[in-house]
Sequence to fold (430 residues):
Amino acid sequence: MNRIAFSIAILTLCWNLSAETLDRSKLDSLFANLEHHNLAQGSVAISSNGKLVYQRSFGRDNTQQTEYRIGSITKVFTAVLIYELIDERRLSLSDKLSRFFPQLPNADRITIDELLGHRSGLANFTNHTGFDGWKDKPKTHAELLALIQSQKPDFKPGTKADYNNSNYLLLGYIVEQVTGKDYKTFLGERILRKIHLDHTYYGERNGFQPGEAISYKYENGAWKQDRAACLDNFCGAGAIISTPQDMLTFIGSLFAGELISRESLAQMTTIKDGYGQGLFPYGDETHAGFGHNGKTEGFGASLQYFPDSHLAIAYCTNGEVYPKAQILDRIFKICVGIPCDIPTFKPNVINPASIARLEGSYSSADNNIQATTTAEGGNLVISVKGQPFPLLALSDHEFWNVAFGFFFDFSHDGKLTLRDVDDVYELRRN
Fold:
């Protein structure tokens, strides 16, 4: 064995995760605290070298068999189906969209490669189309294609990358045209039955089905059932339902070469302008990984794989208040041995001088958010758009609005970071 190969072997060995080396108690504490404070519900599973090393379900009636809508993680499945067709020479990366949908804007210039890498420039069919009004109502292929066709493209094909559901909706339809089968059938033949994903399926019916998790949103201090979107409207962009364990099997099979060729996997994991083809970069400089997140009406999901250590993390939630990104960051750090705190969300009494230090006005030029903080009765209150939000102190700089689940972090340099489930906003003291 040469020196380089030996070094790689040692690094891989040192980073190998097992049920014995994983700090399960730290993960248990994280999810117990989230559940106790109504900040998240769902399921998580972690594997190393194809073996399950941790799993837990938390929150309202969730078990390891609970099936969740995984949103845009569907795009990874779609990319795999496209590359299977490429491997069989039934499709090529250079094929033009005009071969399938000549009526769409720039169809004679957009390639399969650009659809996979979010570089088509097509308008997103879920933006500026009254989506919230029709998301739970079935639409035909023709109706959804018309939504894309009616909108002006966002940019010229190939000039940049910008995440867009239309790209993978079309790729799902292209799978159907090339194979002569509907997406559900081809998905079942080529992935689900092949690698025995017994709790993964295409969500084609309206409403929540037996065995499927119901989604919840948190409002005014209570969980309320969310609307169920019609998943068939998303096809290859977001129609799949699964479990964390099945997701681990899928991503492990993909990187083991059981679904597509090594050449095709290399294409999927080539990052350009922050995007791969059906995959995104995850981890850090020492622990490089790939994966995808998903979100749809009260559901959130994440699937990550780290090739050097064969570590895989799958997370599904049907109700979230504490930002998913914060949860995933801690899961990752615990898995790879990076020190991290486990939030307890316990109230912290801080002195009046510390409260007074945070009073003032804050704003952001990027998103036109303005906020004012005042001390009232020894507590901090923040007002946004005239709406006051009382804050619970977690530390001398971290605060939580319990009713709506907003988190606020005041740094010593005058910066205020506001986090909700989906977004992070940076404000500065005026």
